[in-house]
Amino acid sequence: VLLIVLLVSMLKILREYERGVVFMLGRFWSVKGPGLIIIIPILQEMTRVDLRTMVLDVPTQDVISRDNVSVKVNAVVYMRVVDPEKAIIQVENYFEATSQLAQTTLRSVLGQHELDEMLSEREKLSTNIQDILDQQTDGWGIKVSNVEMKQVDLDESMVRAIARQAEAERERRAKVIHAEGELQASAKLLESAQTLAKQSESLQLRYLQTLTE
Protein backbone atom coordinates (compact mmCIF):
# COMPACT_ATOMS: atom_id res chain seq x y z
CA VAL A 1 0.00 0.00 0.00
CA LEU A 2 2.80 2.40 0.89
CA LEU A 3 4.45 1.63 -2.42
CA ILE A 4 1.25 2.47 -4.30
CA VAL A 5 0.87 5.75 -2.38
CA LEU A 6 4.51 6.59 -3.13
CA LEU A 7 4.08 5.88 -6.83
CA VAL A 8 0.93 7.97 -7.02
CA SER A 9 2.65 10.89 -5.27
CA MET A 10 5.41 10.76 -7.86
CA LEU A 11 3.02 11.28 -10.76
CA LYS A 12 2.10 14.83 -11.78
CA ILE A 13 -0.18 15.94 -14.59
CA LEU A 14 0.51 19.22 -16.37
CA ARG A 15 -2.15 20.72 -18.62
CA GLU A 16 -1.45 21.94 -22.13
CA TYR A 17 -0.97 25.53 -20.91
CA GLU A 18 1.21 24.53 -17.91
CA ARG A 19 4.89 23.80 -17.49
CA GLY A 20 6.73 22.44 -14.48
CA VAL A 21 10.08 23.89 -13.43
CA VAL A 22 11.85 20.98 -11.72
CA PHE A 23 14.66 21.33 -9.16
CA MET A 24 16.94 18.49 -8.07
CA LEU A 25 18.37 18.97 -4.57
CA GLY A 26 17.78 22.71 -4.88
CA ARG A 27 19.35 23.09 -8.31
CA PHE A 28 17.51 23.68 -11.56
CA TRP A 29 16.99 20.39 -13.34
CA SER A 30 14.59 20.87 -16.27
CA VAL A 31 11.29 22.24 -17.55
CA LYS A 32 8.66 19.52 -17.92
CA GLY A 33 5.26 19.23 -19.54
CA PRO A 34 2.65 19.14 -20.73
CA GLY A 35 1.31 15.69 -19.84
CA LEU A 36 2.25 13.11 -17.23
CA ILE A 37 5.61 13.54 -15.49
CA ILE A 38 7.39 11.84 -12.60
CA ILE A 39 8.81 13.74 -9.62
CA ILE A 40 11.03 11.89 -7.16
CA PRO A 41 9.95 12.81 -3.61
CA ILE A 42 12.54 14.49 -1.37
CA LEU A 43 15.09 14.69 -4.18
CA GLN A 44 12.98 16.75 -6.56
CA GLU A 45 10.43 19.53 -6.32
CA MET A 46 8.34 21.21 -9.00
CA THR A 47 6.82 24.67 -9.47
CA ARG A 48 3.91 25.04 -11.89
CA VAL A 49 3.93 27.93 -14.36
CA ASP A 50 0.87 29.07 -16.32
CA LEU A 51 1.69 30.06 -19.92
CA ARG A 52 -1.64 31.71 -20.69
CA THR A 53 -1.93 35.46 -21.19
CA MET A 54 -2.62 37.23 -17.89
CA VAL A 55 -4.36 40.55 -17.41
CA LEU A 56 -2.57 42.90 -15.05
CA ASP A 57 -4.68 45.81 -13.82
CA VAL A 58 -2.35 48.71 -13.03
CA PRO A 59 -3.69 50.73 -10.05
CA THR A 60 -4.54 54.39 -10.57
CA GLN A 61 -1.36 56.48 -10.62
CA ASP A 62 -0.96 60.18 -9.81
CA VAL A 63 0.98 61.75 -12.67
CA ILE A 64 2.30 65.30 -13.11
CA SER A 65 2.40 66.15 -16.81
CA ARG A 66 5.18 68.17 -18.43
CA ASP A 67 2.93 71.26 -18.32
CA ASN A 68 2.40 70.73 -14.54
CA VAL A 69 -1.14 69.32 -14.70
CA SER A 70 -2.07 66.73 -12.07
CA VAL A 71 -3.91 63.73 -13.56
CA LYS A 72 -4.93 60.25 -12.42
CA VAL A 73 -4.18 57.45 -14.90
CA ASN A 74 -4.80 53.72 -14.85
CA ALA A 75 -4.01 51.03 -17.38
CA VAL A 76 -4.21 47.34 -18.26
CA VAL A 77 -1.17 45.21 -19.15
CA TYR A 78 -1.42 41.92 -21.05
CA MET A 79 1.50 39.62 -20.26
CA ARG A 80 2.50 35.95 -20.45
CA VAL A 81 5.39 33.71 -19.48
CA VAL A 82 7.54 32.64 -22.45
CA ASP A 83 10.48 31.22 -20.47
CA PRO A 84 9.37 29.33 -17.33
CA GLU A 85 12.94 28.82 -16.12
CA LYS A 86 13.69 32.56 -16.04
CA ALA A 87 10.26 33.40 -14.59
CA ILE A 88 10.94 31.22 -11.54
CA ILE A 89 14.70 31.67 -11.08
CA GLN A 90 15.37 35.29 -12.08
CA VAL A 91 12.61 36.99 -10.07
CA GLU A 92 10.80 36.10 -6.84
CA ASN A 93 7.29 36.96 -8.06
CA TYR A 94 7.13 37.81 -11.75
CA PHE A 95 3.51 38.99 -11.62
CA GLU A 96 4.11 41.44 -8.75
CA ALA A 97 7.43 42.56 -10.23
CA THR A 98 5.79 43.34 -13.58
CA SER A 99 3.01 45.23 -11.78
CA GLN A 100 5.50 47.45 -9.91
CA LEU A 101 7.51 48.03 -13.08
CA ALA A 102 4.35 48.96 -14.99
CA GLN A 103 3.43 51.57 -12.37
CA THR A 104 6.82 53.29 -12.41
CA THR A 105 7.03 53.15 -16.21
CA LEU A 106 3.55 54.64 -16.56
CA ARG A 107 4.46 57.60 -14.35
CA SER A 108 7.84 58.09 -16.00
CA VAL A 109 6.61 58.04 -19.61
CA LEU A 110 3.50 60.16 -19.10
CA GLY A 111 5.42 62.69 -17.00
CA GLN A 112 7.42 63.56 -20.12
CA HIS A 113 4.31 64.63 -22.05
CA GLU A 114 1.76 67.43 -21.83
CA LEU A 115 -1.90 66.89 -20.99
CA ASP A 116 -3.05 67.38 -24.59
CA GLU A 117 -0.71 64.60 -25.72
CA MET A 118 -2.02 62.24 -23.04
CA LEU A 119 -5.56 62.78 -24.29
CA SER A 120 -4.96 62.83 -28.04
CA GLU A 121 -2.07 60.36 -28.40
CA ARG A 122 -3.17 57.68 -25.94
CA GLU A 123 -2.53 54.78 -28.33
CA LYS A 124 0.98 56.00 -29.17
CA LEU A 125 1.88 56.42 -25.50
CA SER A 126 0.49 52.96 -24.68
CA THR A 127 2.71 51.44 -27.37
CA ASN A 128 5.72 53.29 -25.96
CA ILE A 129 5.01 51.95 -22.47
CA GLN A 130 4.56 48.43 -23.87
CA ASP A 131 7.93 48.54 -25.65
CA ILE A 132 9.72 49.63 -22.47
CA LEU A 133 8.02 46.99 -20.31
CA ASP A 134 8.62 44.23 -22.86
CA GLN A 135 12.32 45.06 -23.01
CA GLN A 136 12.78 45.22 -19.24
CA THR A 137 10.81 42.03 -18.47
CA ASP A 138 12.59 39.97 -21.12
CA GLY A 139 15.20 38.93 -18.55
CA TRP A 140 12.38 37.49 -16.41
CA GLY A 141 11.04 35.37 -19.26
CA ILE A 142 7.97 37.60 -19.61
CA LYS A 143 6.40 38.89 -22.82
CA VAL A 144 4.29 42.06 -22.58
CA SER A 145 2.01 41.87 -25.61
CA ASN A 146 -0.17 44.93 -25.08
CA VAL A 147 -0.76 47.95 -22.83
CA GLU A 148 -3.99 49.94 -22.79
CA MET A 149 -4.47 53.23 -20.95
CA LYS A 150 -8.04 53.09 -19.64
CA GLN A 151 -8.66 56.48 -18.07
CA VAL A 152 -6.98 59.87 -17.83
CA ASP A 153 -8.84 61.89 -15.19
CA LEU A 154 -8.09 65.43 -14.13
CA ASP A 155 -7.96 66.47 -10.49
CA GLU A 156 -11.22 68.16 -9.37
CA SER A 157 -9.48 71.44 -8.62
CA MET A 158 -7.93 71.37 -12.09
CA VAL A 159 -11.35 70.70 -13.65
CA ARG A 160 -12.75 73.76 -11.88
CA ALA A 161 -9.76 75.86 -12.95
CA ILE A 162 -10.19 74.79 -16.58
CA ALA A 163 -13.91 75.59 -16.39
CA ARG A 164 -13.13 79.07 -15.05
CA GLN A 165 -10.56 79.57 -17.78
CA ALA A 166 -13.05 78.49 -20.44
CA GLU A 167 -15.67 80.87 -19.05
CA ALA A 168 -13.17 83.73 -19.02
CA GLU A 169 -12.24 82.93 -22.62
CA ARG A 170 -15.91 82.98 -23.65
CA GLU A 171 -16.40 86.35 -21.95
CA ARG A 172 -13.29 87.71 -23.65
CA ARG A 173 -14.52 86.59 -27.06
CA ALA A 174 -17.93 88.11 -26.39
CA LYS A 175 -16.32 91.44 -25.52
CA VAL A 176 -14.15 91.29 -28.64
CA ILE A 177 -17.18 90.59 -30.81
CA HIS A 178 -19.10 93.43 -29.14
CA ALA A 179 -16.18 95.82 -29.61
CA GLU A 180 -15.85 94.82 -33.26
CA GLY A 181 -19.57 95.46 -33.70
CA GLU A 182 -19.26 98.91 -32.13
CA LEU A 183 -16.27 99.67 -34.35
CA GLN A 184 -18.14 98.62 -37.47
CA ALA A 185 -21.17 100.72 -36.42
CA SER A 186 -18.95 103.75 -35.86
CA ALA A 187 -17.37 103.26 -39.28
CA LYS A 188 -20.82 103.12 -40.87
CA LEU A 189 -21.89 106.29 -39.09
CA LEU A 190 -18.72 108.07 -40.21
CA GLU A 191 -19.27 106.91 -43.77
CA SER A 192 -22.87 108.14 -43.68
CA ALA A 193 -21.81 111.50 -42.27
CA GLN A 194 -19.19 111.92 -44.99
CA THR A 195 -21.77 111.06 -47.65
CA LEU A 196 -24.23 113.61 -46.27
CA ALA A 197 -21.50 116.24 -46.14
CA LYS A 198 -20.63 115.63 -49.78
CA GLN A 199 -24.29 115.85 -50.77
CA SER A 200 -24.67 119.13 -48.85
CA GLU A 201 -21.64 120.62 -50.62
CA SER A 202 -23.05 119.55 -53.97
CA LEU A 203 -26.39 121.25 -53.26
CA GLN A 204 -24.67 124.46 -52.23
CA LEU A 205 -22.62 124.52 -55.45
CA ARG A 206 -25.75 124.02 -57.53
CA TYR A 207 -27.51 126.83 -55.65
CA LEU A 208 -24.63 129.22 -56.26
CA GLN A 209 -24.51 128.20 -59.91
CA THR A 210 -28.21 128.97 -60.25
CA LEU A 211 -27.77 132.44 -58.73
CA THR A 212 -24.96 133.31 -61.11
CA GLU A 213 -27.03 132.35 -64.08
From TrEMBL:
SUPFAM superfamilies: Band 7/SPFH domain (SSF117892). InterPro entries: Band-7_stomatin-like (IPR043202), Band_7 (IPR001107), Band_7/SPFH_dom_sf (IPR036013), Stomatin_HflK_fam (IPR001972). GO terms for cellular component: plasma membrane; side of membrane. Pfam families: Band_7. Residues 9-166 form the Band domain. Belongs to the band 7/mec-2 family. This is Band 7 domain-containing protein. It comes from marine metagenome.
